[in-house]
From TrEMBL:
Residues 58-340 form the ABC transmembrane type-1 domain. Keywords: ATP-binding, Cell membrane, Membrane, Nucleotide-binding, Transmembrane, Transmembrane helix, Transport. This is ABC transporter ATP-binding protein. InterPro entries: AAA+_ATPase (IPR003593), ABC1_TM_dom (IPR011527), ABC1_TM_sf (IPR036640), ABC_transporter-like_ATP-bd (IPR003439), ABC_transporter-like_CS (IPR017871), P-loop_NTPase (IPR027417), Type_1_exporter (IPR039421). The chain crosses the membrane at residues 57-78, 94-114, 173-193, 199-216, 291-318. It is a multi-pass membrane protein. GO terms for molecular function: ABC-type oligopeptide transporter activity; ATP binding; ATP hydrolysis activity. GO terms for cellular component: plasma membrane. CDD domains: ABC_6TM_Tm288_like (cd18547), ABCC_Glucan_exporter_like (cd03254).
Length: 615
């Protein structure tokens, strides 16, 4: 029936175990493999986090030892009571026995409780450190990493995967350890009491081990795949939520929902198979447990009749047989959680292993002051080592100059800015700032002297004041307002309910595109950088706002070396130099008049834009 239920979602590639999901390290569709080597490496890394709380861990271990020991003592005491107190001493010391047994079980509960809360403390701290490391590392990763991945997929590692590790460390890890201990202890006591009965109990062990192995070999990759599917689904959700407007505008709702259904079905299938197969473990254990129970009871009874074992030993054995299979059962139950935690940890470590943005050179310096002379000499760059995206680019920008970048779409304007900001490094040639190679300047220092006003200026959830202050966190309220006035943003802010204290929702929805730009300009003015990058807005903004933005930009650019990615040629006539790019090559450079006289692509673009304006 379940199969029938899934049928509508089945995709030709949708065979469980043959993941079609996008993955980090592996190409789409590669079968996930979990080898013992991967696992031990992952466990070692988890251990490196746990080891930071060694002292507490030792305490936990002591508690585990005590509680396991006490758990073993119970049946032994009962056996002694049956054989000794009841048979030989006629029950006179029955009261003492009862009190001893009560103390043993009470202590057992106390030590279990202590081990539990201390382990939770260690687990929460460990997960806190992992999450912080992951987040901090994400912020050190180079831009190409983010170019290749969906945000939601990355988010999933910070949330789902870490959560899986957390729940395992909270309870399963210690339970597994305690189960192993109880198991070994039980076997030891059983051997001591009666090697023959122990051997009989063990008849089922090879079957248990074989069964467990068979099952976990199948479930390991499935759990890994489920985590990956979950990550993919999160990526899809994030993408479709942020692209809501486009989805609605192009009436793609049905397609998106069916895309979601397909991914969701993949999670359902991998989750179903992982749980269904691993859910068989406890059943198998139970069945085999009952079998060994029957063997011990039957054969033990025969042995007792012949006087080879006492009744007390048989009672203890029946209890130990249960105690022996209980940790095995627990192990089997915890196995699922452990498997999904290992799968989660692997995905967390995968990101942690991603190379961070190349470290600054050892001798790299921080700059206190920047004049703003930027020089590109014979710069070439390609994104993937293939054809050059930028080819042999040379130009110079003097302090305070406005440099406009023009050219058809895909010409390489954004890439050039990416090199200037050191999101990428050139393959050939050199870029200098005030005569210093960019690579010899610390990235953070370089970027602290730059400000960006982009087409889609990002605003955070917070007040308007906080959003402007993002440019310089120690700016006073007066400085924030002065920057807003220079940017021409003050008057619209004051007209809004709440003024500077008005809360903006996520990404500034609730204010217009033009107003967003004015806030971004105010933010950049407050940052007071020596260099500016402006990506001129292409979206249609009303003329009044556009004039305001232009005035704000003029105020912002004054005295700063500015790079303007210009989409409307009318606004760059005032540029000191215009760089005309096409297909990654710098075709022309000069002032508006010089370029017009020269003819070529620039005059064609100007003619084209005035034609379209006329049209
Ligand atoms: N992350 C990337 N990985 C690979 N190729 C890229 C990447 N970003 C851009 N490109 C390619 O590099 C070329 C230049 O792109 P770039 O974004 O610099 O152009 P642009 O002039 O800014 O275009 P537009 O005016 O449309 O913004 C294009 O062919 C583009 O497809």
């Amino acid at each position: 029936m379940f199969k029938a239920l899934l049928e509508p979602f089945r995709h030709p590639k949708l065979n469980v175990g043959l993941g079609d999901a996008a993955s980090f390290g592996s190409p789409r569709g590669r079968k996930p493999k979990a080898t013992a080597k991967d696992w031990s490496a992952t466990l070692r890394r988890i251990w490196s986090y746990l080891a930071k709380r060694k002292a507490k861990l030792v305490l936990v271990l002591v508690m585990v030892l005590l509680s396991s020991g006490l758990a073993l003592l119970g049946p032994y005491l009962i056996s002694r009571a049956v054989d000794h107190y009841l048979e030989r001493d006629g029950g006179r010391t029955w009261g003492i026995f009862l009190i001893t047994l009560a103390v043993v079980y009470l202590l057992n509960s106390l030590t279990s409780w202590l081990q539990n809360i201390w382990m939770i403390e260690i687990a929460q701290e460990t997960v806190y450190r992992m999450r912080t490391d992951l987040f901090a590392h994400l912020h050190r990763l180079p831009i190409p990493f983010f170019n290749r991945r969906q945000q939601g997929e990355i988010m999933s590692r910070l949330t789902n995967d870490i959560e899986n590790i957390s729940s395992t460390l909270n309870s399963s890890a210690i339970q597994i350890f305690s189960s192993v201990l109880t198991l070994l202890g039980t076997v030891g006591v059983m051997l001591w009491l009666s090697p023959l009965l122990t051997l009989l109990t063990f008849i089922v062990v090879p079957l248990m081990i074989l069964g467990m192995r068979w099952i976990t070999r199948r479930t390991g990759p499935l759990f890994k795949e489920r985590q990956r599917n979950m990550g993919e689904l999160n990526g899809f959700i994030e993408e479709t939520l942020s692209g809501q407007r486009i989805i609605k505008a192009f009436s793609q709702k049905e397609r998106v929902i069916s895309g979601f259904r397909e991914r969701n079905a993949r999670i359902m299938l991998s989750g179903y198979w992982a749980q269904a197969i691993s859910g068989f473990i406890p059943k198998l254990m139970n069945g085999l447990n009952n079998l060994s129970f029957a063997i011990v009871a039957g054969v033990g009874g025969l042995l007792a009749i012949r006087g080879l074992v006492t009744v007390g030993v048989i009672i203890a054995f029946v209890e130990y047989t249960r105690q022996f299979t209980r940790p095995l059962n627990d192990l089997a139950n915890q196995w699922n959680t452990l498997l999904s935690a290992i799968a989660g940890a692997e995905r967390v470590f995968e990101v942690l292993d991603e190379g961070a943005e190349a470290k600054d050179e050892g001798a790299a310096v921080s700059l206190d002051h920047v004049e703003g002379t930027v020089k590109f000499s014979g710069v070439s760059f390609s994104y993937d080592g293939g054809a050059d995206t930028l080819q042999d680019i040379s130009f110079e920008a003097k302090p305070g100059e406005m440099i406009a970048l023009v050219g058809p779409t895909g010409a390489g304007k954004t890439t050039l800015i990416g090199l200037l900001s050191r999101f990428y490094d050139p393959d050939k040639g050199s870029i200098t700032l005030d005569g210093r190679e960019l690579s010899s300047i610390r990235r953070e220092s370089l970027r602290s002297h730059m400000a960006f006003v982009l087409q889609d200026s990002f605003l955070f959830k917070g007040t308007i004041r906080d959003n402007i202050r993002y440019g310089r966190l120690d700016a006073s309220d007066g400085e924030v307002e002065a920057a807003a006035k220079l940017a021409n943003a003050h008057s619209f802010i004051m007209r809004m309910k709440g003024g500077y204290e008005r809360m903006l929702s996520v990404d500034g929805s609730g204010i217009s595109q033009g107003q967003k730009q004015l806030l971004a300009i105010a933010r950049a003015i407050l940052a007071n950088p020596s260099m500016l990058v402006l990506d001129e807005a292409t979206s249609s903004i009303d003329t009044v706002t556009e004039i305001k933005i232009q005035e704000g930009l003029q105020a912002l650019m004054k005295g700063r070396t500015s790079f303007v990615i210009a989409h409307r040629l009318g606004t760059i006539r005032a540029a000191d130099r215009i760089l005309v790019l096409q297909g990654g090559r710098l075709l022309q450079q000069g002032s508006h008049e010089e370029l017009l006289q020269e003819g070529g692509l620039y005059s064609e673009l100007v003619r084209g834009s005035s034609d379209s304006a006329a049209g």
